[in-house]
Structure prediction request, 126 residues.
Amino acid sequence: MTLYLWLVYRPDLIQLRGLILVGLFQDALYGYPLGISIFEILLLYALIQAFRRYILQESFGFIFAGYAAYLLIYSHMKWFILSYFKGEWLSYTPLLKFMGFSLLIYPAVCSLSLAIQKYIDYSFKD
Prediction:
């Protein structure tokens, strides 16, 4: 969620190498097959790069809808890939709980992320 926000508002502070390292760390932390989180992060990066100029000047609701659409695609993709590696269909309930919780806390995380970005801008002004 925060990565989505930072890629929309401050892509200048994010490097591709760092995203790959975050993906590797996330795979190791969650015990996912190596590369799943990297693929997810690179997918997000590509989507934001392709549509950033269209969504940057839009309202909060539009950016939130973009996150909801990405969350829907990403969550189902990850559920399908993990089900494939497990060899059986995983329960759908955790996926629904994750999506619901993510959408519920999005406004608070967005406010915090934007406050951090403003602080960075103010602190490092020339």
Helices lie at 2-9, 16-30, 36-55, 60-86, 93-123. The chain is about 80% helix and 0% strand.
